[in-house]
Design goal:
This protein has about 270 residues and is an alpha/beta fold. It has a single domain, classed as 3-Layer(aba) Sandwich (Rossmann fold). Helices cover about 35% and strands about 15% of the residues. It is built from eleven helices and seven strands. Strands 2-1-3-6-7 form a five-stranded parallel beta sheet, with helices on both faces. Strands 4-5 form a two-stranded antiparallel ribbon. Helix 8 links the parallel strand 6 and strand 7. Helix 6 runs antiparallel to helix 7.
């Protein structure tokens, strides 16, 4: 069972699976026998440290079942590598896909874990050749890998960034093409969507407007939400002390409320 299925002291995440999936999702489990909305993405969909994440709030706003298929630190590969999750998403009337995890995409330079996409598995010969001075045995996570590569050489790092972007865009095209319902792309973050990207320390490394633009004609709409409050100090204090640093970087209850309203405004006309 991965980290997304573990519950902390205050919240029961009711871990569940759909369609024989090997991934664990946040419950309570929803019926997928009739009309429903599927929400895909990473931490911003799963809702760690939030009692009612935005997919659950979206149910009340739309009157439709909403299946939370968020997986913490997930990339696109987590869904494409899991037939059960993919089938569940593909059968939804509406699919909301969070724009996230570009750097967690397997590519010609490095491979990530098929389900825990933030886990670095191995460097490809092309990356070993590009960075002969790098000891990859010390690396276990993709962001750690990228920070090390960027520190060693920014010029060579740009080649890695372009390759990862190309791989992510191709996977996104594949994912969207598998959906039978209307697809909405969602930017949900503490900062506005910028045109930056080649920075391992960025909130979403390699994710740029230019990268997403070719995907827009393939979907119904792109929704952008930058909440007025990402996570309140009082919310952080309610988190176990050893987890407060992590919680500070994740959206809180108010942020989830704002994004649920924005998504509802976008998808309700399609559901009617």
């Amino acid at each position: 069972m991965d980290v997304s299925s573990v519950h902390d002291q205050a919240i029961d995440y009711a871990p569940c699976r759909y369609g024989g999936s090997r991934l664990w999702f946040r419950g309570p489990r929803r019926s997928v026998r009739s009309s429903y909305v599927a929400c895909l993405g990473g931490c911003g969909v799963y809702g760690r440290y939030v009692s009612r994440p935005w997919p659950q709030k979206l149910e009340a706003l739309t009157g439709r079942a909403v299946v939370n298929l968020g997986v913490e630190n997930a990339g696109i590969d987590a869904y494409l590598n899991d037939p059960g999750a993919l089938a569940t998403a593909a059968s939804a009337n509406v699919v909301v896909i969070q724009l996230t995890g570009v750097h967690n995409t397997s590519n010609r330079y490095y491979s990530t874990h098929p389900r825990r996409n933030d886990r670095f598995l191995r460097a490809a010969p092309a990356l070993i050749s590009l960075y002969p001075e790098m000891d990859f045995t010390e690396v276990h996570f993709t962001r750690h890998l990228l920070k090390r590569l960027q520190l060693l050489c920014r010029d060579r790092f740009s080649l890695v960034a372009k390759e990862v972007q190309t791989a992510w865009q191709a996977r996104m095209r594949t994912l969207v093409s598998q959906m039978n319902g209307d697809v909405f792309l969602l930017w949900f973050a503490s900062k506005a969507f910028t045109d930056g990207g080649e920075d391992a320390d960025a909130e979403e490394p390699f994710l740029t407007r230019g990268l997403v633009s070719p995907l827009i004609p393939l979907v119904r709409q792109k929704i952008e939400v930058v909440p007025s409050i990402w996570r309140g100090t009082d919310e952080i204090m309610e988190v176990p002390p050893l987890e407060q640093h992590r919680a500070a970087h994740l959206p809180g209850a108010e942020a989830h409320h704002e994004v649920s309203e924005a998504v509802a405004r976008a998808i309700v006309p399609v559901l009617q």
